[in-house]
Specification:
The protein is an all-alpha fold and 158 residues long. The protein is built from nine helices and no strands. It has two domains: 112 residues, no CATH class; 30 residues. It is elongated.
């Protein structure tokens, strides 16, 4: 079975040898793996398994050691190798989520599966101020004896 087939069908290569990417390039796979792991965990609002960081690094090292095309990509000039590693680590993390936490994977945008960065987290829609809120504010302003200038100051800080 080819390495790519093994990976597509759920196998994860393990690399127990010395870190070669760091010796051959300015890239630090563990740092990229940690950043991708933190990005997804923060976006999902969940702590992801810490060992996934190691698995992402091991996968990068295994592919680097066995695949000349991967070595060329990671050694590409400028930021090309860095960007490629980030993209694939996101993709690999999406695969881990799909395999082991499908509930979390379902919450991710589809573009994360292909290595795209996560978009800003959508914020909850703000509810409009109800008329009762305004009435309560006026009563409180009156109780504290606020002047019009003080009321403007309070309302401008909302």
């Amino acid at each position: 079975m080819m390495l790519e087939d093994l990976m597509i069908h759920g196998g994860w290569p393990h690399w127990s040898g010395p870190a070669r990417i760091e010796h051959d390039t300015p890239l630090v796979p563990q740092a990229v793996a940690t950043a991708v792991w933190e990005e997804a965990g923060a976006w999902l609002g969940e702590e992801l398994p810490r060992e996934w960081r190691t698995r992402l690094r091991e996968r990068a090292e295994a592919l680097y050691a066995r695949n000349p095309r991967v070595r060329r990509r990671l050694r590409s000039p400028g930021n090309g190798g860095r960007d490629w590693l980030w993209t694939f680590m996101r993709h690999w993390l999406a695969a881990l989520l799909w395999q082991q936490r499908p509930d979390l994977h379902a919450r991710l945008p589809g573009a994360f599966n292909t290595g795209h960065p996560l978009p800003p987290k959508p914020t909850a829609p703000q509810r409009p101020r109800a008329a009762t809120d305004t009435q309560i504010d006026r009563l409180v302003y009156g109780l504290y004896g606020l002047t019009q200038d003080e009321i403007k100051l309070v309302e401008s800080n909302r």
